[in-house]
Design a protein that fits this description.
Oligomer: single chain
Order of helices and strands: HHHHHHHHHHHHH
Structural class: mainly alpha
Largest sheet: none
Distance between the termini: 7 Å
CATH superfamily of the largest domain: MetI-like
Radius of gyration: 24 Å
Strand content: under 5%
Helix content: over 70%
CATH architecture of the largest domain: Orthogonal Bundle
Number of helices: 13
Number of domains: 2
CATH topology of the largest domain: MetI-like fold
Number of strands: 0
């Protein structure tokens, strides 16, 4: 078990290195002069040159990359051009709303999708199965912002049950924190619940046709015992993999959702940095998001050992 964990952790190192190279090249090899863009249309030539020296853009690309990696190794993601603050500090300041939204969204997606997928698989070919699949196709077809606006109009503006926009920190109380996150989490969770429900259904149908499930029926086990003790356990790995993929894709959905519901998270920080051409912040946020995706995939890989002990070897 220990050797497997170490092997998976070491495997993330080259992935993180490739991610760092890609993120660095995306910013530094993009068309145009970043210093001229940041300085604005009315900037003088000497102002642009001064900004280039400040950003280190006058040095060769390999030297800039080595210097950048050295700062990364010390946990330094750079400094914001606009407010002269460390990028890592700006991200950590915004991480609570984004983490809260992402975690609550994936919890809602799992709570909705797993039962629906199991029910659809158990009633494969029947009306309830078709109803679940219609829901899954519909939910995955609508964009997050459209679902968000519908929920906002109906539950906030029309019935006035929940706040329209904004975010309340967890320190202000769970009830207030939850009231501001319900709408965006449901909007984001419904989209990914569709993907997860379809995967759960297809995997469960395959498992329910196995011989050991027929043996469980012959032994007189209850439906709950067959579905959860035998079928779901053996179908867990593809489902958990889909959860990991959904969580990684959810990071992109957070950007749109935070904009719709005016949540001051990392997604809003990204949009603000792009609009204001604050490239060090954009670079830092993209790298931070990529690191989060790699860590989620690592956790998913390690979780396989709990569902199938043979993977440890």
């Amino acid at each position: 078990m220990g050797a497997y964990v170490i092997k998976r952790i070491l495997a993330t190192i080259p992935v993180l290195l490739v991610v760092a190279v890609v993120v660095f090249l995306l910013i530094n090899l993009a068309p145009g002069d970043p210093a001229a863009i940041m300085a604005g249309d009315e900037a003088r030539t000497e102002d642009i040159e001064r900004l280039r020296r400040h950003l280190g853009l006058d040095r060769p690309l390999p030297v800039r990359f080595i210097d950048w990696v050295g700062h990364l190794a010390r946990g330094d993601l750079g400094t914001s051009i606009l407010n002269n603050r460390p990028v890592l500090g700006l991200i950590l300041q915004r991480i609570e709303p984004t983490a809260s939204l992402a975690i609550l969204s994936i919890v809602i997606a799992i709570a909705v999708a797993i039962p629906l997928g199991i029910i659809a698989a158990w009633n494969s070919g029947r009306t309830i199965d078709r109803a679940v699949m219609i829901f899954a196709v519909a939910a995955f077809s609508f964009p997050v912002f459209l679902i968000g606006y519908v929920l906002m109009f109906s539950l906030s503006l029309h019935w006035r049950l929940l706040p329209v926009q904004g975010y309340s920190a967890l320190s202000s109380g769970i009830e207030e924190w939850l009231s501001h996150l319900i709408l965006p989490s449901v909007a984001l969770g419904l989209v990914f619940s569709a993907l997860l429900a379809r995967m759960t259904r297809s995997t469960m149908i395959e498992v329910l046709n196995e011989d050991y499930i027929r043996t469980a029926h012959a032994k007189g086990l209850t439906t709950i015992q067959i579905l959860f003790r035998h079928a779901l356990t053996n179908a867990a790995i593809p489902i958990v993999t889909t959860i990991g993929v959904a969580f990684a894709a959810l990071i992109g959905g957070v950007v749109v959702t935070e904009s719709v519901f005016a949540i001051p998270g990392v997604g809003r920080l990204t949009i603000e940095a792009v609009l204001q051409r604050d490239y060090p912040v954009v670079q830092g946020v993209v790298l931070f998001a990529a690191f989060a995706c790699v860590m989620v995939n690592l956790i998913i890989d390690l979780s396989y050992t709990f569902f199938d002990p043979r993977i440890r070897y």
